Amino acid sequence: MLDKKDLEMIKDIMGTLIRESENKMSSKMESLIHESENTILEELDRVQIHLGKRIDKVEKDLDELNQYYKAGK
To answer: Residues 4-37: pLDDT tens digits?
Structure first.
């Protein structure tokens, strides 16, 4: 049978192991969150560039239509 001293030692060891595990989990979660944030920001940049190009094309087409309209007056 385990005496009180043995139980305290087991409790301390378990507490240490749990804290180490929590720290590893926290570190891994932070890493995954950071990676996800970077992925989202990269995708936003890609979408912004794509939409910027489309807006430029629409503005060019609008300018061309305005020139035709002015020429027809």
So the answer is: 999 999 999 999 999 999 999 999 999 999 999 9
Residue 10, class by beta-carbon neighbours within 10 Å (0-12 exposed, 13-18 middle, 19+ buried)? exposed
pLDDT given for residue 34 in this prediction: 98
The residue with tokens 């595990």 is 21
Q: Please state the pTM of the whole predicted model.
A: 0.65
What tokens appear for 47 in the block? 């979408």
Rounded CA separation 14/20 (Å): 10
Q: Give the Cα-Cα-Cα angle 9, 11, 15 (nearest 5 degrees).
A: 120
Calpha distance 3→6 (Å, rounded): 5
